[in-house]
């Protein structure tokens, strides 16, 4: 990857929320480069969500060697949805792609997700990764099946797996969404609410590179039940967006 300053602004921003993932930083950045180099002008935005390990130092060392890596830091951990939102708000690309920072999400699938949004020509607001062959524990997979089943039955969003961190979307579409903790798990339903299509891409899950999970666990059904009711209410209360034209004198 060239370390010279990009001539033009990035067309794609890769947002990676992390908390205490120091040993996974360098390997994941190398994989993102391998997947995207020569295809898009891109930036990588790591959102350091209140890490207490060497995550910040590892990022700073790599930033000194390259111009397209940025680090945002939360003084305290705000959670995954807050980290994704901070990254999207700071992004300069028209298209934003996200993936988890633990290495379970393979960056090799980023081009398929980004291309799905591009080919949608404005109709596709979100390309969502759908995990195949998940490497989580049996209990976590059971939780996800229950949560996804309940969510789909109530919201009818047509998505079998909203918990996958691999996603790509138009930045302007994401910023239209009402923000709340857990937003990333309801993106398909909320993007459909705004009248956009969803593209789905099967992705192959893999074990994390190192460390232990810092996000998730009970944040699948039990904590999210009130969010589910709230999103259902938002969908029910949605009115058609008026067609607006400017009248010139």
TrEMBL record:
UniProt-listed Gene3D superfamilies: Spore Coat Polysaccharide Biosynthesis Protein SpsA, Chain A
The entry's keywords: Cell membrane, Glycosyltransferase, Lipopolysaccharide biosynthesis, Membrane, Transferase, Transmembrane, Transmembrane helix
Q: Where is the Glycosyltransferase 2-like domain?
A: 13-174
Cellular component, GO annotation: plasma membrane
> Does this entry carry the keyword Transit peptide?
no
Keyword Transmembrane helix: yes or no? yes
Question: Which GO terms fall under molecular function for this chain's record?
Answer: undecaprenyl-phosphate 4-deoxy-4-formamido-L-arabinose transferase activity
Question: A GO biological process this protein is involved in?
Answer: lipopolysaccharide biosynthetic process
Tell me where on the tree of life, at the top rank, the source sits: Bacteria
The name on file for this protein is Dolichol-phosphate mannosyltransferase
